[in-house]
Amino acid sequence: MENLAKSNNYIPYKDFINVAAACPVTNVCDIDFNLKNIKECIQNSLNKDVKMIVFPELCITSYTCGDIFLNKQLLNLSLKALENLCNYLKGKDILVAVGAPLVYSDLLYNCAFIIYDGKILGIVPKSYIPNYTEFYEKRWFTEGLDVTDKYVNLYFQNNVPFGVDLLFKSGNFKFAFEICEDMWVTIPPSSYLSLKGANIIGNLSASNEIVSKAIYRKDLVKSQSARCMAAYIYASSGIFESSTDLLFSGHLLISENGTILEENQRFQRYNEIITYSIDVEKLNRDRLKNVSYRDNSKFCPFKIREIEFQFKNFNNFTFNRFIDKHPFVPGNDSERETRCKEIFNIQSSALAKRISHTGLKKAVIGISGGLDSTLALLVTVKTFDMLNIDRKNIVTITMPGFGTTDRTYNNAINLCKNLSTDLREINIVDSCLQHFKDIGHDPKIHDVTYENVQARERTQILMDIANKEGALVIGTGDLSELALGWCTYNGDHMSMYSVNCSIPKTLVRYLVRYVAENQIDKVTSDILLDILDTPVSPELLPKDKEGNITQKTEDIVGPYELHDFFLYYFVKGTAPDKILFLGCKAFKGIYDEDIIKKWLTTFIRRFFSQQFKRSAIPDGPKVGTISLSPRGDLRMPSDASCKLFLQSIELK
User: Fold this and answer.
1) Catalytic entry in 51, 57, 111, 613
2) 652 an active-site residue?
3) Which neighbouring-strand residues pair with 415?
């Protein structure tokens, strides 16, 4: 973890907040002991620059007090412990949610006490009281579902807001709380609270362990955070609760919009906290984009009371969040294999639909010996096998030109032969030289005209053969190339159906490797692995004296792993200065800040200037969360200025 308050112009603590879930060691009914351990957890959290911490349900007294909850002594000492805790928290810049019982109007409530800087900001009662199987809470507690717009006078603080209608706000950070069973019901209170702005939900829980319950509980937390488009901080009672009939495990979870960010190992025998940096700006941005969230926000059945407070100290901010440098690629092998299977199924099923609809029985693909055309060919082969169409109906055309190397040429030829396609070779050198002559271009001048003539000649060949054969031209370009506009307009930019259009380059590599390692014979696998090891290049400039590639794409436009990272965040609405900040975290030790800034500048300039190409791209299936289709995810003018975006990272 790195301690910082500011990086360049970007101020991370305006977007991120460190939260914690805690499970203190407790003794049943031993309030002084419990309070001591609660304080220790708070201090440990403060040492990690945490601003909000959630404790388990009824942790002041412990959850398993049984009929002793009705004892006046326990209830009085519980209030004294809360007063003690308030005094302890004076001057401390942390919002604390702690569980304790409360008598109100001669009824006993199971409550979350929300404390900041020595003051109880509000008290939230448990809405739903379980009274089935192993739970008998209605023997002691009253449901708080209808408690709204109430105030409580405590002997040490008067007019404390009390009810399920409370939302606690500090700047962009809006907190709400529910208790255990509230999350397990059909419509949890947090659903309504999130619709009224709560972006961080705390759950004070006491959930006992039985076989497989932890998996279900984790799924509930993940699901509720997704439905609420919020962070969800879950803290449950630990093993030192009474084990007369039940055992509790101290399950701690931090989730954000459907993703579990942090989870503890249950059954620990010491004070435990887990922490994570929540990206609240991203949550708010997701809500802004989601029309259904906006439409649903009017259906809260009660009026919210917003309680404002202000965090004070951000001089030290410990960024405690993993930033994946390859956000399009699953992190572990098993998930990656599952993802690759699904992507191939999406691509091939989409292509099969297009082939069936057109009534065509043939496909035409230009094969270069590079990654993208290889992936497109593998998808087409899978599709034809699925439709029981002979692979000889896949017309693969290799079109060597001025920059074609023996390595890529041989890989293209051997791959097509091994896959039993209808392989054809058409050398484009003579036709390009004739075209240079026709338009008056000196072939010794290796400029954009020199390059694009070759790309357009190849596309013309593919289109004309498709017409002649009654076939569909399969596009090979990928999402990363579309983002950068690294394609020739009306050249490789065009096809009749584009199967790779939402596959970023970093993922293309994994898809090809997946086939090489899992779904192909040894000889073909070796070809695929060599293609993976070949530098990415359009091979439009002449090769060197040794016959090697001279035009390496990543030397010209920058590393694709950086551009895919930029693309992922930029299309989701992240500001460039924040992308730079996140990039420096993700690629620490790989690229320095100046390099990341340089290629981020390139990305922004090209992304804006090349939109006109994306406005005219052919059909193709959306595969992941990012798509640049003008008919789908991206509505962007072709003549928008990038000036403001460059200024945000101090670049002109």
Assistant:
1) 57
2) no
3) none
Write phi, then psi, for 355 (nearest 5 degrees).
Answer: -65, -45
80 is catalytic: no
> How far from 435 is each of 427, 429, 538, CA to CA, in Å?
14, 10, 19
* 57 catalytic per annotation: yes
Quick one: 424 exposed, middle or buried, by C-beta within 10 A (0-12, 13-18, 19+)? middle
Residues whose CB falls within 8 Å of the CB of residue 426, separated by 6 or more in sequence, listed in order: 397, 398, 399, 461
Triad 611, 616, 617: Cα angle to 5°: 95
pLDDT band at 429; cut points 50, 70, 90 = very high
Give every CB contact of residue 437 below 8 A, 6+ residues apart in sequence: none
What domains can be seen in the chain, in order of their start residue?
Answer: 17-309 (3.60.110.10), 333-647 (3.40.50.620)
| Element (DSSP H or E) covering residue 467 | helix 448-469
pLDDT-derived band at 8 (thresholds 50, 70, 90) equals: low
Position 334 scores a pLDDT of: 80
- The predicted model gives 22-37 an average pLDDT of 97
Separation between Cα atoms, residue 123 and residue 45, nearest integer Å: 22
- Residue 118 confidence (pLDDT): 97
Span 114-130, mean pLDDT? 97
**The token pair that represents 337 in the structure block:** 């294999």
* Catalytic option among 92, 126, 150, 325: 126
* Marked catalytic residue, from 180, 228, 501, 584: 180
